[in-house]
Specification:
Elements: H1 12-27, E1 53-61, H2 65-72, H3 78-91, E2 96-106, H4 111-127, E3 131-139, E4 149-160, E5 175-180, H5 189-195, E6 202-203, E7 206-207, H6 208-212, H7 220-227, E8 232-237, H8 242-246, E9 255-260, H9 268-277, H10 281-285, E10 292-298, H11 303-309, E11 314-321, E12 326-329
Parallel strand pairs: 2-3, 9-12
Antiparallel strand pairs: 1-4, 2-4, 5-10, 5-11, 6-7, 8-10, 9-11
Helix pairs in contact: 1-4, 3-4
């Protein structure tokens, strides 16, 4: 019997089935700027309507949250996570997402699972007026075990050069406003899985995996609603490293984000993790978003308007002078 690619563990037919399952849905994310369709070697996107456009790009993955999804056999939210982790980053600079590409790697491809993951990306793209214009599915036996998947993405957005938000306008007295997260989002799951090894256990009346797999919140509509009405000085996406690592990324020298952590609305599942794992509060805030998915920094005269525009946003601190770029009081 002669050797074939399939006998080595790669089933091309399963890949073709995946494309068949997603092609129509992916096409529904396209607009007139997309000049070709799924299956080409490269994806074409035409830019128009801007005076001095700057492209803003971001790439990320889902991390070990994938283990929760795979072990629980729940795949519909993972694609949303992948898109959100990329798109939320470029929002920090005032960009609007234009298009998204995905990368899906596995040991043995199952077209049903792969399609479910990609259809989550499709849903997220539609919600963010973004086109899913390409991607890659890699079946790599020997690199990944059967049943294992890894997911990553790449998002490109656009902003007028004179409208870029980079934190350079942040000044003393500016207010820090929190936008709530939907949970852990896609960070810290190596620690989450260590403390919560049984995803089937009951938590607040339902299996724990349902709480853990709530997808990362998409902030496109909220952020651009604010940007259109108010001059925003800075935006930070609270991902790995929590508030301690992400807020200083937009704070200039000599300034400090002074935050009253007692004002932060911490999700109950994070409080349970903290208690069960005997984790110090500072460690929690340096690992997880602790209920704050994004922060915006605005002039104090604009703070009330932002709170009015965003129903669930709330103030957690202000910008002061200081050598340290962040100070959390508990």
């Amino acid at each position: 019997m002669s050797n074939t690619y399939k006998s080595a563990g790669v089933d091309k037919e399963e890949g073709y089935k995946t494309v068949d399952k997603i092609k129509k849905a992916v096409g529904e994310t396209h607009n007139s700027n997309v000049l070709n369709h799924l299956g080409s070697f490269g994806a074409f996107y035409e830019i128009g309507g801007y005076k001095n456009p700057v492209l803003v790009s971001g790439t990320d993955g889902v991390g070990t949250k994938l283990k929760v999804a795979l072990d629980s056999k729940r795949y519909d939210s993972i694609g949303i996570d992948c898109f959100a982790m990329c798109a939320n980053d470029i929002l920090c600079h005032g960009a609007k997402p234009l298009f998204f590409l995905d990368y899906l790697a596995c040991g043995k491809l199952d077209s049903e699972i792969a399609a479910e993951i990609v259809l989550g990306m499709v849903k997220a793209c539609k919600d963010n007026n973004c086109a899913l214009i390409g991607g890659e599915t890699a079946e790599m036996p020997g690199m990944y075990q059967p049943g294992d998947y890894d997911v990553a993405g790449f998002c490109v957005g656009i902003v007028e050069k004179d409208q870029i938000i980079d934190g350079s306008k942040i000044k003393t007295g500016d207010k820090i406003i929190a936008l709530p997260s939907s949970g852990f989002h896609s960070n810290g799951f190596s620690l989450v899985r260590k403390i919560f090894p049984n995803f089937e256990e009951e938590f607040e009346g339902k299996p724990l995996y349902e709480t853990l797999l709530v997808p990362t919140r998409l902030y496109y509509k909220d952020i651009h609603k604010v940007i259109e009405e108010v001059e925003v000085s800075g935006i930070a996406h609270i991902t790995g490293g929590g508030l301690y690592e992400n807020i200083p990324r937009i704070i200039g020298d000599g300034l400090c984000a002074t935050i009253d952590a007692s004002k932060i609305q911490i999700p109950t599942v994070m409080l349970e993790l903290e208690k069960r794992g005997n984790i110090a509060r500072e460690e929690m805030f340096g690992t997880f978003n602790m209920g704050v998915g994004m922060i915006v920094v605005v002039d104090p005269d604009h703070a009330e308007k932002v709170l009015h525009l965003l129903d669930d946003a709330y103030e957690i601190g202000e910008i002061t002078e200081g050598a340290e770029k962040i100070n959390l009081s508990f």
